[in-house]
Amino acid sequence: HRLPFRAQCERRWKMRMSCLVLLLVSAAAFAGCTERELDHRAASGRVEIAPVWAGLNRPSTAGYRFYGADNKPVPVEGAVAEASVDSFSVVLPEGRYSCLAYNTDAQGVTFTGLDNRLLAEVRLSSEAQPGNVYSWSVEEVEVTSRGDVRYTPVPLRLVKQVVLRFRVTGVEGATVLNGTLNGVYPSLFLLSGDPPEQSIRTAPETVAQYTATLVQTRNTGSPSYTASADIRLLGLLDPQKEEGNGNETAYDSRLNLAVHNSSGEVYSTTVNMNKPVSEIIDSYGGEIPIDKTIEIDVSVNLLDMNLTAVVQGWKEGNREIIIIK
Q1: From the DSSP assignment, how many helices (H) and strands (E) are in the chain?
Q2: CA atoms of 66 and 52, how far apart (whole Å)
């Protein structure tokens, strides 16, 4: 049944008007969304963190965290992220923040306490030596409306290194020397690089492992061998207790070592490290230096099946050795 021509025209006109109304409503809704998006962007700014790695071993990945005035993570998308160590950029609402970052590819460590900027730590996860650990921070990040800011912090190295140089005599067919050194800090604050109180208390029971291959240096007479072992650590506790200073963390610093030979025999001994470790720490303002290589010379000798060892001295890099008396 066909409608009269006039009715068909009225029907088409109503359909066109309905489509037009729908388009106008959609356009208004889109305009509202766009306006809200522009308003949001107007109240935000872009932050770029680009650490300066000159003279440092650049790691591969990093974790970035932005904190509010209460030192707690900011509940904003992108405020906690894993990104490149070269540069990280994020859009944040207008305001003031702090940023703390660290490399996430370091072996032998874990990161804890990250929900509070002041309590965030790097912790040893085993007796194995840690890889390179860095932290970098910006104390005050100011984000302005539609602004762009860029910060270039210098990363803080958190892992120190001590080199043990051994000279072994009297052991036939010596092949490997290994052992442990105690007094190692198990954790450090990421922000400052200082050890927490708990780390200081447990350092005497915390050890770092080392292993070195012995190389024969003399074929005639009594056999002689040398070896070098790098010990990477978060720091060493001073074993010396001064009278009346109230320090209750004094302990005995001990270097445990074992010499293995080609016949499967193992000879062990322990070296008192109190004096050399204390001298080194006192010489560098209370801590193992972060930017210098400290070498400790240890003489090891087997006589009548009894292995003994003594620290001969220590030095910084190519400087003259400081004799331990």
Answers
A1: 3, 21
A2: 19
Residue for token pair 């005995």? 252
C-alpha span between 139 and 123 (Å, rounded): 23
Amino acid (1-letter code) at residue 191: L
pTM above 0.70, yes or no: yes
Q: Which of 114, 273, 262 lies closest to 179 in space, CA to CA?
A: 273
Q: What stretches of the chain show up as alpha helix (H) in DSSP?
A: 5-42, 197-202, 274-283
Residue owning tokens 């240890």: 298
169: which 2 tokens? 């005599």
Strand blocks (E) in 183-253: 187-189, 207-213, 215-218, 224-233
Q: What is the C-alpha to C-alpha distance for residues 257 and 269, in angstroms, rounded to an integer?
A: 6
231, 164 Cβ separation under 8 angstroms: yes
Amino acid letter, residue 91: V
User: Based on the number of CB atoms within 10 Å of its own CB, is 130 exposed (0-12), middle (13-18) or buried (19 or more)?
Assistant: buried
pLDDT by residue, tens only, the chain of 325 residues? 555 655 555 666 566 666 655 665 555 555 444 433 434 455 899 999 999 999 999 999 999 999 999 999 999 998 999 999 999 999 999 999 999 999 999 999 999 999 999 999 999 998 889 999 999 999 999 999 989 999 999 999 999 999 999 999 999 999 999 999 999 999 999 999 999 999 999 999 999 999 999 999 866 677 899 999 999 999 999 998 655 555 554 799 999 999 999 999 999 999 999 999 999 999 998 889 988 889 999 999 999 999 999 999 999 876 666 666 6
Contact 129, 233 (CB under 8 A): yes
Residue among 121, 122, 76, 67 at smallest CA distance from 99: 67
